[in-house]
Fold:
Amino acid sequence: MSVPVVSTSRCCARALRTSSRLSFAPQPITCQYQRWTPQATRRYESTATTPTDPKIATIVDQISQLTLLETADLVSNLKSKLNIPDLPMGGFSSGLAAAAPPPPAEEEEAAPAAQEKTLFTLTLKSFETAAKPKIIKEIKSMLGLSLVESKKFVEGAPKMMKEGVPKEECEKIIETMKALGGVVGMD
Structure:
């Protein structure tokens, strides 16, 4: 038997012994080993509904009935209508990518393409097998990854390292990786 069953049976037997000795009137059986049962302590387990606006409730009901494709279309329409920029999800970009300017508006795209590119994307293209541990350590420190993540990242080359990096920093990173035995491309 499991521990709670054994302790419960002992408790009940003790209660029956003491109740049969003292009186014949039925008494409530109390057990010192009562099992704790949560009473909807978590928000998601709660059955109580909070009063909501009926307009919002109908919108929620309508959204919950959408398919995945319809939901994706709804999200893209809301982003465009409310001017919400697309933010990158995860990835290996550093804080510099977050500080990059927002994507240019359509009017600016029509401007001449003669402007010089200032932000670049770095890609780890290949590396010497003898220099693999050094490359892994450098990637770990540069991107802030764990050792396992850095190893998987290096083994998955060619892979994008950083995006939205200024030219000077790109050149420093390329020189560092070249000295260690890695080949980094700047796009």
Q: What stands out?
A: The longest helix spans residues 3-22.
